[in-house]
Every structure is written in structure tokens, then in C-alpha cells.
């Protein structure tokens, strides 16, 4: 990943926005997050609590706000923003949850921190059919689901954008690290179409821009059928968005199948590991970056890897018809 930089802009050659808070900045974030965590009813999914989060987030350290704003404007070649040095009391963390579909409803310090920052990037949203519509979701290994192509598994997770099948995919996916797998640092993998594009043959690019692919919903979604035919690359030929899930997207003809397979190899070859440590929060731009996960060995001893995930949308009006009372949950 790129070198650290203090200003709220990305040097042209840098791969990712990488921002390490100073001790003083961490204290400022901690004070806001604690104040938010103590705001009644101390529930993440409560509209009043979220309104407070939206307001308090404006007071985050200027350096952090500058960078979030710059990342929103242009996510850089890597399409990733990594914030480290966030407040986290590792000693006070409970055991890593182990159940399927686990979510964080309580306004804990890490949940409040992720929401404060996420709400500066855009609108935090969730899907009623996924993880019971909770805004903060636990990403933890689940016994019996080791082989599943979901965030409950521990086998390699194929590169994907989040909810590739869905018309209202998140614009950004945030992953906040509470606990890392003991002795196993690498977990989340990312791969940016902005990096990969020059390596993709012109003829494959043309095919990938055509509606010759369909995508099925992931295992975490409890309903929904496959999409209509869609392109994998969309928008500017020089800087396209990518829409693919290599576990769920299939090609409708042989030529498209080969182009898709070559894309898969390129995206894997150019991928990098985001080695998240506790107190680090990564946002990936879900329009230009695929993410996946390296395999790891869960121990189910309460000390397993534990991330908390939030989804961010940029345009709140676009999904209004799907959100009751202008709330945060679609579906
Ligand atoms: O476990 C990870 O690092 C990422 C899992 C994932 O794809 C997700 O939670 O959306
Ligand atoms: Fe994912």
C-alpha cells in the first residue's frame, strides 16, 4: 500500500489513501465516539441515535474529514481508504461472536466510530433481507460455514463487489477491525479495476462492456433471483465501474466466459492484502474495487478474527421508494 500522507489529497502515484491518526486525533475521535455511544437509546439502528451520529461526525478531526471528502471525490487508483490509530479498548472487548447472521445493535465504541466516519462518507444503509437489516454487521467465522462463499466462511472468498446482483449496491463497504486472527495477519484482499484496466486486452474490454453476464444473489441474502443480463464494465471506457462477483456472475456465451475468466486471473494477479489490525478501518469503493478474503483457520475460542461492516450510499433519494419512513434500511 501507499505511503502515508497527511494532506487530504492523494499523490498521483499513490495506491491508496492511508491515514494514521495522531494520539491527539485519536483522543478527539474517542471523545466523540464515547459521547455517541452514551446517547440514548444507545442503539445503532435507532433513527434519533443516527441523527446524533450525523451531527457529531462533523466534529471529527479536520484531517480525517479532509481525507474522507477527497476519497469521495476520487478514490485513487487503489480505491481504498485505510484509517488507522482509531480508539479501541482491546482488553475490554467481549468474546468474538460465533453465531450465524451476527450483528451489532448496541452502540459500542467501535460501532459508534464506524458509524461516525461512515456518515461523513455518505449515508449508511442496510438491506432488510440481509443480516436482519442491521446497519453494523459482524464479520466473524461461523462453525459449520467454513466452506461457504460468505463472510462467515474461512476458505478463500472469491473476489466480488458487494451485492453485485442488486440494483442498489453499496457505493462503499467499510470494514472495521476489532480483532485479528491470532498469528494470521492477511485477511481482506482488494483489487482495483483502475489498476487492472491497462492489462486487459482491448477485445476483452469490449466484451466486458456488453450485457452478456448475469449475477445471482449471495448466500447472505434470503431472497431475490438472478439479474437481467448486465455488463461487467460500465461507464467510461478509460475509467469504468466494475460489477462482478466471481462466485455469482456467469457469462451467457463462450466468448464472454473466456473474457470473464481472463479478468478473474488479472484481478487476482493484481490484488493486494489489506492487513487490518485492531483499530483500523478500511473503506473500499465498491464501484471500482473487488474485495475477497484469504483463507484462515478459525479456532472458535472467542478470540477469532472480528470485523464490523457498514455499507455506504451516496445518493439517498435514489433508494427512497425502498426505504420506509426515509430510514436506513432498504427492502
Ligand atoms: O472477511 C473479509 O475480510 C471480507 C468479507 C466480505 O467480503 C464482506 O464482509 O463483505
Ligand atoms: Fe464482501
Automatic annotation (TrEMBL):
Pfam families: TauD (PF02668). Coiled coil: none annotated. Keywords: Antibiotic biosynthesis, Dioxygenase, Iron, Metal-binding, Oxidoreductase. Signal peptide: none annotated. The keyword Ubl conjugation does not apply. Residues 218-239 are annotated as: Disordered. The keyword Cytoplasm does not apply. One of its GO terms (molecular function) is dioxygenase activity. Gene3D superfamilies: Clavaminate synthase-like (3.60.130.10). Its cofactor is Fe(2+). It comes from the Bacteria. InterPro entries: AlphaKG_dependent_hydroxylases, Clavaminate_syn-like, TauD-like_sf, TauD/TfdA-like. Residues 117-310 form the TauD/TfdA-like domain. Belongs to the clavaminate synthase family. PANTHER family: GAMMA-BUTYROBETAINE HYDROXYLASE-RELATED, TAUD_TFDA-LIKE DOMAIN-CONTAINING PROTEIN. This is TauD/TfdA family dioxygenase. The lineage of its organism: Bacteria, Bacillati, Actinomycetota, Actinomycetes, Kitasatosporales.
Amino acid at each position: 500500500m501507499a505511503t502515508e500522507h497527511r494532506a487530504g489529497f492523494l499523490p498521483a502515484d499513490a495506491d491508496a489513501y492511508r491515514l494514521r491518526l495522531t494520539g491527539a486525533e485519536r483522543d478527539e475521535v474517542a471523545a466523540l465516539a464515547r459521547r455517541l455511544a452514551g446517547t440514548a437509546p444507545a442503539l445503532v439502528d435507532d433513527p434519533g441515535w443516527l441523527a446524533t451520529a450525523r451531527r457529531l461526525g462533523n466534529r471529527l478531526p479536520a484531517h480525517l474529514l479532509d481525507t474522507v471528502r477527497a476519497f469521495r471525490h476520487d478514490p485513487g487508483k487503489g480505491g481504498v481508504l485505510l484509517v488507522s490509530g482509531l480508539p479501541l479498548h482491546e482488553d475490554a472487548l467481549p468474546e468474538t461472536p460465533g453465531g450465524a447472521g451476527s450483528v451489532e445493535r448496541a452502540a459500542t465504541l467501535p460501532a459508534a466510530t464506524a458509524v461516525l466516519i461512515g456518515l461523513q462518507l455518505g449515508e449508511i444503509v442496510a438491506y432488510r433481507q440481509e443480516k436482519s437489516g442491521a446497519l453494523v454487521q459482524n464479520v466473524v467465522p461461523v462453525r459449520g460455514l467454513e466452506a461457504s462463499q460468505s463472510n462467515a466462511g474461512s476458505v478463500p472468498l472469491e473476489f466480488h463487489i458487494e451485492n453485485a446482483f442488486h440494483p442498489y449496491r453499496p457505493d462503499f463497504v467499510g470494514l472495521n477491525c476489532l480483532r485479528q486472527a491470532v498469528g494470521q495477519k492477511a485477511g481482506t484482499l482488494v483489487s482495483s479495476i483502475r489498476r487492472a484496466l491497462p492489462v486487459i486486452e482491448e477485445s476483452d474490454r469490449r466484451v466486458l462492456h456488453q450485457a452478456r453476464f448475469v449475477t445471482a444473489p449471495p448466500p447472505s441474502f434470503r431472497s431475490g433471483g438472478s439479474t437481467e443480463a448486465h455488463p461487467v464494465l460500465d461507464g467510461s471506457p478509460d475509467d469504468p465501474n466494475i460489477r462482478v462477483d466471481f462466485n455469482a456472475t456467469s457469462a451467457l456465451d463462450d466468448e464472454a466466459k473466456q473474457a470473464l475468466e481472463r479478468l478473474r486471473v488479472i484481478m487476482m494477479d493484481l490484488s493486494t492484502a489489506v492487513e487490518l489490525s485492531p483499530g483500523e478501518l478500511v473503506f473500499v469503493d465498491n464501484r471500482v474495487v473487488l474485495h475477497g478474503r484469504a483463507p484462515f483457520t478459525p479456532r472458535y475460542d472467542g478470540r477469532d478474527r472480528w470485523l464490523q461492516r457498514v455499507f455506504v450510499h451516496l445518493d439517498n433519494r435514489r433508494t427512497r421508494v425502498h426505504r420506509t419512513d426515509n430510514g436506513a434500511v432498504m427492502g
